[in-house]
Amino acid sequence: MKFRILVKGIVQYKDNFLAVERWYDDRIFEPYQWEFIDGEMEFGETPEKAVERIVEEKTGVPVQVDKPLYTWGFTAGEICTTGIAFLCDAQTDHVILSEELHDSKWVAKDEIGKVITNQAVVRDIEKAGLLNSFDLDDFGKVDLFIEPMD
Asked: What local confidence, expressed as pLDDT, does residue 134 receive?
């Protein structure tokens, strides 16, 4: 059995997220699919350095890792894959796509679920809190009832 580690960059610039369109296979129903940027770690890289490298190689956008968001995994044949998704802050919104990507667009937070069609990815980013409407600022808007202690 072989193992590989994938990293995914969920790239944020101001209030928008970078989605890229990739061609998969002309034998499937939707050969072009929108997704976040991902790729395989190289030997000796940290996951953070790998995602920074991959995002810049594929989109030309320099990023800094903010935090890990979620993990995922699957086995296909003899290869066991583990993935780590990171929230990344972009330094610019100017994109220069690599040849493997077909298109890109910056998407508002409330539009992510409409653009990213892979429902497993949408569920993962919802679990990570990226699509939740909850905000720390909401604490000031909620009446908290605290029972007095005896």
From this structure: 39
